[in-house]
Amino acid sequence: MNIKRLLDLISKGENIETEFKQSQKKLNKNVYESVCAFLNRNGGQLILGVKDNGTICGVDTDEVDNILSSFVTTVNNPQKLNPTFYLSPEVFEYKDKKIIYIFVPESSQVHKAANKIFDRNDDGDFDITNNSDFVSQMYIRKQTSYSENMIYPYITMDDLRIDLIQRARKLAMNQRPGHPWGELIDFEMLKSAQLYLKDYQTGKEGFTLAGVLLFGKDEVILSVLPHHRTDAILRRKNLDRYDDRDDIRTNLIESYDRLMAFVAKHLPDKFYLEKDQRISLRDHIFREVISNILIHREFINPFPAKLVISPNSVNTENSNKAHGFGLIDPANFSPFPKNPTIGKFFKEIGRADELGSGVRNLFRYCKEYTGTLPQLVEGDIFKTVVTIPPQVEGLNDTVNDTVNEGAIEGAIEGATLVTKEKLKILLTAIANNEGMRVPQYMEITNIPEKSLERFINQLKKMELIRFKGMATQIGGYYLTEKMKKILKGNK
What we know:
alpha+beta; Heat Shock Protein 90; seven-stranded mixed beta sheet; 18 helices; four-stranded mixed beta sheet
């Protein structure tokens, strides 16, 4: 969200997905009714500091922090909103007035505000607590829309990994001392995490698919979902098959561990300081990538999730219930929870952050790690591409001289002697490492930036290389067909 989009949203007025509240000195009493209704219906946008007619009155500057604190505390208080739901307000300023924007996604659960169930229509929020037909329809809609809510009434605690439950409890308590899971027995802990539900259509109750995927024994998971697997593949030398592989068919918690270990095994880290503290760029990036293919995945689709490490990039694919199509722009997108219960559980144990922050973190750290931005493509198959920098591949010490030197020499025959030597080094680097950009070729060749850019322009004029991709995101330099023919002719 940005101020331009926010003002455009306000100009369109209130509707089924947009609600204004004045909240100048304090939160309106019915704010949480709107939050509950949005969660229960299709999601929506709550805007504080705006009158019903769309006039921007602004939130009192001295009260902004108190209002934010009160809101976040209340939506995480099960006595006020049950189940609780993490929401992240944003503050904008327009003509010296403060506006608070809150995106509320659709939830896979039925929520109550102050023990009442609210739904949403064009007229606003309405209480359906005592209308058994409406309540029943809402539960049915939630359970059929989100596959993570599928109930398996014959699965018992004996079918689950008790050691994993204990481990998850410790992870949650490490994240937040005094976490309520520390006081609950195993079954109550799973129930509080919405992993045990009642089907209001059939009257059956039991552990959900989310509970099975998080804590089920391997044979139980594969009995429920025979196609469940995540494929981790390394393709550097053997591009037709693989150099290393991990075929992962286990619970989501240990799947995360194995995928992170696979990445650590094949992608050395890069030194990076953040606020005088060294952090692992590799771990920060792939924590988000791996969490995404495990959390935001349509599990009933037999398409296997993949993480493939190739010479110049890491690519992931997973089945997806798309809510849009095409490239994701982190500055202009609305996050949507594909499996809210699993996502919330991962957040509780420190494996994910609040909705939407993962994409922002990924773009931020990839810029530091590779000099390029990642590519995220929303569709029925969700795809992620992260470029691998040359220092990760170990290519920054010397140019790999596997390309026929005579072919290179002939291609740049018209250049002066000194320039010719530099062009030969650069063209060899591009031939061996296509798809990279100026910062990577600088490290490989040790040619200064301005000189390298000049040499790149010369090679482009000679029609030996060309740039493919988007200049501001994914893209790099590749050999032209003309240069490829020259190389083939000299073999």
